[in-house]
Amino acid sequence: MGGIVIADYGVGNIFSVYHAFEVVGAVAAVTKDPAEVRHADRLVIPGVGDFANCMDRLARQGFRDEVLAFAETGRPLLGICVGMQILFDSSAENGPTPGLGLLPGTVERIPDIGLDGARLKFPNTGWFDINPPKDGNWKSSVLAGLSPGDAMYFMHGYVPSPSNPEDRLATFSFHGHCLTAAARRDNLTGVQFHPERSARTGLSLLAQFAKL
């Protein structure tokens, strides 16, 4: 199949992601056939909802081992929302539940209380500015075309906490708490927000991924 392959394992905004790639002129294909992952130039793993359900469907649909094998090839892989979370070691959601273990770290529930003492809504939904970590930059990443402070659309109740600070690609301020917005290690990138719902900034990210 080649090109950008979007894994359809029954979870996620599959066709929203596909149409967003169309908008930026990138050639992408949606597949329910795990074997097609082997021939992909770039792989996208969407995901929404429950972490354990995503992991279960990934395994039952035959994608788990193919994703692990693809990650070892060095070709670009992008996880979106829960598709990002399952790249990590485990999640506290209905857990602990093991993930793919491709990125060291855990996925934790977002804070219930802001630093100002206010009780926060769960799940978190809305636009938040993203920024590089201190001393970090977005060169040669999917965020290379963006500027610090650009906004992305989030919809989630859990968020990854990388074990290695250098794996943090971007952060966002959640009522005073500094949380992970994106992570990267070698050829693996994950974003907690939804680029397919993030207008110009999200399209820029997907266009950049198509060039990696």
Task: Please give a structural write-up.
The structure is a single chain. The protein is of the alpha/beta class and 212 residues long. It has one domain (4-209): 3-Layer(aba) Sandwich (Rossmann fold). It is built from 5 helices and 13 strands. It has helices at 14-23, 51-60, 64-71, 82-85, 199-209, and strands spanning 4-7, 28-31, 42-45, 77-80, 88-91, 97-98, 103-109, 124-129, 151-156, 158-162, 168-174, 177-185, 188-191. It has a 7-stranded mixed sheet with strand order 2-1-3-4-13-12-11, sandwiched between helices. The chain is globular, with a radius of gyration of 16 Å. The mean pLDDT is 95.
Which SSEs are present, and which pair or pack?
Blueprint: E1 4-7, H1 14-23, E2 28-31, E3 42-45, H2 51-60, H3 64-71, E4 77-80, H4 82-85, E5 88-91, E6 97-98, E7 103-109, E8 124-129, E9 151-156, E10 158-162, E11 168-174, E12 177-185, E13 188-191, H5 199-209
Parallel strand pairs: 1-2, 1-3, 3-4, 4-13, 5-7
Antiparallel strand pairs: 5-6, 7-10, 8-9, 11-12, 12-13
What does this entry show, briefly?
The chain is α/β, with parallel strands linked by helices and 212 residues long. The chain is built from five helices and 13 strands. The strands form three sheets. It has a seven-stranded mixed beta sheet, with helices on both faces. A four-stranded mixed beta sheet has the order 6-5-7-10, with helices on one face.
Radius of gyration: 16 Å
Return the domain count. 1
Unreliable parts:
none
Distance between the termini: 18 Å
- Morphology: globular
- Give the spatial strand order of the biggest sheet: 2-1-3-4-13-12-11
If you average the pLDDT, what whole number results?
95
SS class: alpha/beta
